[in-house]
Design goal:
Blueprint lengths: L2 H17 L9 E5 L2 E6 L2 E7 L5 E7 L3 H4 L8 H31 L4 H48 L6 H24 L2 H22 L5 H4 L10 H16 L7 H28 L3 H17 L5 H20 L8
Helix pairs in contact: 1-3, 1-4, 1-8, 3-4, 3-9, 4-5, 4-9, 5-8, 6-11, 8-9, 8-10
Length: 337
Amino acid sequence: MNLRGFVRLFTHIQLLPVLENGEETTLVGGQAVMEGVMMRSPHSYCVAVRKADGRIVTEESPLPRLADRYSIFKLPVLRGLGTLGHAMWLGMKALRFSADCAMSDLSAEGEATGQREKAESGTREGGSWKMALNIGFSLAFMIALYKFVPLYLATLLGRHFPEVSSRFAINMMDGTLRIAIFLGFMLLLSRLREMHRVFEYHGAEHRVVFNFESGQPVNVDNAQRFVTWHPRCGTSFLVVVLIIAMACYAFLPFDSFWAKFVARIALLPVIVGISYEVIRFAAKRQRGLMAVLTRPGLWLQRVTTQTPSNSQTEVAIHALQRAMELERAQGGELVIA
């Protein structure tokens, strides 16, 4: 994997929480990947990727529900952590398959067959540790960008401007800066051509999910009639996380910069679990305070989802159909909740 490939994979990893629908329910969900879509049913999943020659290749497998294996993840808050962790693991697996397909397409452009085989062999042999390195780098980058940088800037402002030097004011500025950094990062990524295509596949995934949930026959024409933003999207989830984190951090009883920084990392699992419960509740009740809380995430999906082509929608449908076939083969029942 060269520097370009490393940066490409790093960018996609940064988008995993945005693109992933982590709800572990009887509904289908999915995620956009490189030139494709992963679709998940309650007990199965399928990744479908469009190759450069137009073929659709897939990877599919049964997928036991984490809550069925470990009953502790049926409890409120903890089920959010388990579900999100499982969804991220599956998302990384799907992303790696799509990345392998992309590398295969790139190596196929080589002039000599020997060069292609050497490139493919190198990708297989070094893929695991390079993926681990990229994940570690991505995690460190996210902590620095969303935890360290906004808190550091807010602390500097508090030192230079006595009007905003109180503990509460610094924590509120930290939350505001974190949201601004997140929005700016999403807007920046949306300007990249490759990320724009990922956002189109993201829109295709949402439209096909809507099509399935409507009870209408799932096909390209029907799917293209639906909107591209969905209340269970990872984008909406992250916006809720940012809002709840801002409220929680505002009342932390610490003045030391490092104490605040450590507390933000330590509280992250709790905030994620609470946010999951909020999204789960709001998905079933689209009125009142819940609608207000989740609406910013739907607005942001105008950036993280784009109008897909018929070809991209076809890939999402293919992934869903294969996942459903595997679900039925296991005796599972797909229910519209």
